[in-house]
Amino acid sequence: MSILIAIFTLALVAVVVLVVSAPLRASRRRPDSGSAGRGAEAKAREAGADGAAVGPSPPAQAAKHVDLEAAREAKYREIRDAELDYRTGKLSREDYEAIDGELRAEAIEILNRLEADEEG
Amino acid sequence: MAGLGRVCLLLALAVCVYGIGASLYGVRSARPEFSASGRRCVYALAGILTIAFAVLEIAFLRNDFAFNTVADTSSRTTPTFYRAAAVWSSQEGSLLLWAWLLSLWSSLALFLTRRRLRDVAAYATSVLLGFAGFFISLMIFYANPFATTRPAPVEGAGLDPLLRFPTMMIHPPMLYSGYTLCTIPLAFGIGALLARRVDADWIKAIRRFAFAAWLFLGVGILLGARWSYAELGWGGYWGWDAVENASLMPWLTGTAFLHSLMIQEKRGMLKVWNISLVLATGTLAIMGTFLVRSGILNSIHAFGGATLGVPFVILIAVLIGGSIYLVVSRREMLRSEHRIDSLLSRESIFIANNVVLVALCFVIFWGTYFPLISDALTGHEASVGPPWFDRYTVPLALVLVLLSGIGPVITWRRATVANARRNFTVPVLSALITLVALLAAGLPQKPFAIAMFCCAAFVLGSIGQEFFRGVSARRAMAGEAAPVALLSLVRRNRRRYGGYIVHLGIAVLFVGVAASSSFQHASELGLSPGQSTRVGAYTVRYVRPTATITPKNDRAHTGSTLSLGAVLAVSKHGHHVATLQPSEGFYAAAGGQGSVGSLIAGQPVSHVSMDAGATRDIWSAIAPNIEAPELRRIVSLGNRTLPPEDAIVAIAAIARTYLQHPPQAQFHLIVSPLVMWIWLGGLIVFGGGLIAIWPAPSAVRRRVAVRARTRAARGLARA
Fold this sequence. Notes:
The complex is a heterodimer of chains A (about 120) and B (about 725).
Chain A: H1 2-29, H2 31-50, H3 58-87, H4 93-119
Helix pairs in contact in A: 3-4
Chain B: H1 2-28, H2 32-61, H3 68-73, H4 80-85, H5 91-112, H6 118-141, H7 166-194, H8 200-230, H9 242-267, H10 271-294, H11 309-329, H12 346-378, H13 386-409, H14 417-440, H15 447-478, H16 482-492, H17 494-518, E1 521-527, E2 532-535, E3 538-549, E4 562-572, E5 575-580, E6 583-586, H18 594-597, E7 605-607, E8 609-612, E9 616-623, H19 629-641, H20 648-660, E10 665-673, H21 675-693, H22 698-718
Antiparallel strand pairs in B: 1-10, 2-3, 3-4, 4-5, 4-6, 6-7, 8-9, 9-10
Helix pairs in contact in B: 1-2, 1-6, 2-5, 2-6, 5-6, 5-7, 6-7, 7-8, 7-10, 8-9, 8-21, 9-10, 9-12, 10-11, 12-13, 13-15, 13-17, 14-15, 15-16, 15-17, 16-17, 17-21, 19-20
């Protein structure tokens, strides 16, 4: 029984090591891309540390983009919700048009920022 | 097998330690492969703990009493069904269940976020592995589920008879799923603060887990209440017990978060509030586990010893201190992007709802921890009882129900008075009609109960109006038949209409609570066969005694050695209404006096019998007099003359004597109106919750997004 447990334990340890170390082994198999990526990130971090003149680092830029996308989705939802509120009588026509106009203006602003972000 | 379990725990701890290091190194030094390795540690942990849990479960099912925890909480006479659940009745087993569930939910959360939120997820991974490591360390150093004794005892002590009920099979896993799910938003919240990424993306990533935590915790709380009512012999469903309160507190803050989250998503407001709620909910979940497992407060649910208090206090102190530091140090990033446009808006109602929920949580926190606070300040442990809790929670609950009716009919940003007047007409009329009907029916003067009925009618009017208008709008737009329009409406707006259903369920639940607690009739008295008593409008007659012996014949299937009970006939105005058969089970326990005495020395457990209906429950419990002289004589004689293998003969004699010469038995009889509404309300709440949490079909999502984009573009052209 104890031999069986020992074998099972060794097998379990081996599986765990294989599973956990897979990303490390994969990155070692791609040394160029890995070091290049790290180099770029390191440069970006240095640039970020230098000051605002060089602009946000790639991770920060990616985060900003994700934020804008999330804001766009939330705004779309808001537009839909306002429409449903209007259709279910919670908003008068005048109120709906005013709120809808505001929401669309905000949506356009987000879309413009997204576009600028994509171009930049 | 125990050796394998111990190896699993050690390996799990090693994986946690490596995973924490790898995740932190990965995120701090921009080495994503290390972060990925850390994430895989969580998957590996789930696998290892699954094996460990299976080892313990098999030990219970095989009656392997070499495992100390099996010997302490199970026995051969424990029915198989309950042996499987006995794993989490012990301190050690429940810690393993906690860690195992945490590893499973964490794996799911990290798998779903594997391609986004990389820096936040890396910090979250280390926090989640930190929690797992904490619980695994407790098991290794304080309460090892794989500790053994050689030679193994031939028989175990048996599962606490109080836990031998079907609801107890699923109540702890539900509650623990809720607690562990609460730690996922907590971990991502800490991750977001550490990574300085307090934007909408992390909120989006954890929203579904926060909802799932709320759902599981709610189901667990409701199952606990049902167990208390239908299985325990005291006749109530909520006793403001410390452990009940501990599970309710994170549920309340979680509910507040699910509401205020919408304000952050839509308006970029309440960021400090939301992150604080996430951190508070997670910390309260850990505190809930601490209360159950530390044994620091007296509770019918607390099954832990006092050994785990110090490590838990340290963890909670670190969580509270760390949370405060992180929120204060990141306050600049958590500034709101907008302000509230109008006090007459859904945002304002949500904020009011948050204030009430947090106030409720604070009241319950104060009442629950008051014994510890008073002990610390005065050296004398004083406690507060249900009247104290009722004094503060009842008015708050009334306001909460009222707000759950106001929220749905008021719009985001700003509502005008004219619109509000139009939208509130139906709900207010519903409440007024209910008030007039209740007064006309001459209900006893119970102002809080009547106010609750009116508030619930207000909610019903408000939600009913919402559905009616939504279906009408859908029919006008798409020309669908009413049932199809209703389905389309809910399917396309799951969060909104799922939420409305939840509000409706809460109102129904509170009607049940108000009615059953205000208009209950109860009687506790001794009766002999043939005697009757009145409970409310009902007459209850003790018809005859009942008795069964041996675990095999136990009608309640809980493995009792002896079960003594009664047949009760319930009638109203001379008409038979129901036959009830309450009983009390007596269980074998090691250490009982003598061969016969040890067969019935365990804690006796009442088996409630009730006639439940939509309008009222007739509830009964019995406490038979096992100490009657003629029964004691048989036990004494059996102890002196019978060896253990023949002791059941004396138990049969006790049962026979009880049937022939039944001594007076104590009965607890209750007639409660609308208790069924509590369970029905709970089902509605969780049905609504499931609708709200269910992911929208991707095709619909795409279509909606495209339409909204087009609309925005059209707006651009107009602008």
